């Protein structure tokens, strides 16, 4: 998939029989910096963010880019929801080719910088447009750098997603949410033994219970505004019922059966910059069509009903200011809007 699923380019296999799922976290650690000391300076119009709306880790970058108003500074290439063992493809574009990079497969950008690159061809990735070379696919650092290195191009009213005074707490929350929830659902879904699955299952739901307690009395995970921590949790929660509950066997409860987390997720979904980036059709097609060792038929379920994402959440009663002293982002550019057939947001018009 993306920063999470490393493509097994020998056969498209995800489950290791008899064992636990272990994520390959060796990413291209190059950074794009404001002072250019990395060799890759922040420069408007130079870079292109390659994503798939199916991928939770890419979805984070789409959200952060929207919230900060970086659409004009960093263009975006959207791959289709499915891929083969070779690479993500730009099959949504005319002629199956990204109109800016001129490539059919994201692998071409990886190979342009690293001929014979052997690790996963993952999204999100940032590509240098002039050379066509991938710069980085280190998804965790990428979103932080959009907040800290790209400040010269933030929109007026952009929120502080990674405020200095809260960074230690954000980092602590992100670490446990990644280990037990973001990665935890994959540890359930890709478990190769009953023992590995049960261990991952309990770890996941113990952490969701911890998050329920934390969010019962406060609107957001850290402080009284939306931060990077909320973005990272949201992209897993929004995929929980459509994919993780059934496909990955994370089925103690649905998200809709966990009242605090369900209200929290709806609160974020209804916040500009969150729900309007979510493509439920791409999400379901990716997981159910690509993971053939889990779902051999490739049949994609029709449910769940999505209309309930727009129901009142009541979280305003906890206070909090979504954007702090800032303002909501403007609507996404027309070319970047989610197909209205793939999201319940059309019902809110």
UniProtKB/TrEMBL annotation:
It comes from the Bacteria. Keywords: Transferase. Glutathione binds at residue 88. Gene3D superfamilies: 1.20.1050.10, Glutaredoxin (3.40.30.10). PROSITE patterns: GST_CTER. This is Putative glutathione S-transferase. Residues 310-349 are annotated as: Disordered. Residues 163-290 form the GST C-terminal domain. GO terms for cellular component: cytoplasm. Pfam families: GST_C_2, GST_N_2. The active site is at 55 (nucleophile), 186 (proton donor/acceptor). GO terms for molecular function: glutathione transferase activity. The keyword Membrane does not apply. Residues 336-349 have a biased composition (Basic and acidic residues). The record marks 244, 287 as: Lowers pKa of active site Cys.
């Amino acid at each position: 998939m993306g920063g999470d699923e490393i493509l097994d380019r020998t056969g498209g296999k995800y489950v290791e029989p008899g064992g636990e799922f272990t994520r390959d976290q060796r990413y291209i650690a190059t950074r794009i910096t404001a002072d250019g000391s990395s060799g890759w300076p922040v420069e408007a119009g130079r870079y292109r963010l390659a994503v798939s709306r199916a991928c939770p880790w890419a979805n984070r970058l789409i959200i952060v880019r929207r919230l900060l108003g970086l659409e004009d500074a960093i263009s975006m290439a959207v791959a289709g929801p499915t891929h083969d063992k070779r690479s993500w493809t730009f099959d949504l574009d005319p002629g199956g080719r990204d109109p800016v990079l001129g490539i059919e497969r994201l692998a071409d950008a990886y190979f342009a910088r690293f001929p014979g690159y052997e690790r996963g061809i993952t999204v999100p990735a940032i590509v240098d447009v002039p050379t066509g070379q991938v710069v980085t696919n280190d998804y965790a650092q990428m979103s932080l750098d959009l907040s800290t290195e790209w400040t010269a191009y933030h929109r007026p009213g952009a929120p502080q997603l990674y405020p200095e005074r809260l960074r230690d707490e954000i980092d602590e929350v992100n670490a446990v949410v990644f280990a037990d929830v973001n990665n935890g659902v994959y540890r359930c879904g890709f478990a190769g033994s009953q023992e590995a699955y049960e261990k991952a299952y309990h770890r996941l739901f113990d952490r969701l219970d911890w998050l329920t307690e934390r969010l019962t009395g406060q609107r957001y995970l850290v402080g009284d505004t939306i931060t990077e921590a909320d973005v990272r949790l949201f992209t897993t929660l929004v995929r929980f019922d459509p994919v993780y509950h059934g496909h990955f066997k994370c089925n103690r409860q649905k998200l809709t059966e966990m009242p605090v987390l369900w209200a929290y997720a709806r609160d974020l979904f209804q916040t500009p910059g969150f729900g309007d980036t979510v493509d439920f059709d791409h999400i379901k097609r990716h997981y159910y069509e690509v993971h053939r060792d889990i779902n051999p038929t490739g049949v994609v379920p029709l449910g769940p009903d999505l209309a309930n994402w727009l129901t009142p959440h009541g979280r305003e009663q906890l206070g909090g200011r979504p954007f702090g002293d800032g303002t909501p982002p403007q609507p996404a550019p027309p070319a970047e809007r989610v197909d209205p057939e793939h999201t319940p947001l059309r019902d809110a018009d």
